[in-house]
């Protein structure tokens, strides 16, 4: 497209935007009908605001519920891991104590044999 065509498109877009803005302002500020229009716009705005509040409340509740679910799942998993680690520790601790006692007995037996 030529430079002149781009300028024409820009001017046309500007004129259309200006015309649209003029029509909207004309409707809003027209004597009697404008009051009704503004009233309708205000009512619609209030309706949209109420809908937004309701949606926010719904989403907020869903997020709280999900947080609660995730939190309880995390706590449950953490408790399971803690019990598994503790059980493993206790199991290996008992094995080490038992092996240590066996080693002590073997060393004492060897020392006694050496003393004889």
From TrEMBL:
Keyword Transmembrane listed: yes
The entry's keywords: Membrane, Transmembrane, Transmembrane helix
Superkingdom assignment: Bacteria
Membrane spanning stretches: 12-30
Family annotation (PANTHER family): GENERAL STRESS PROTEIN
Name listed for the protein in its UniProt record: YtxH domain-containing protein
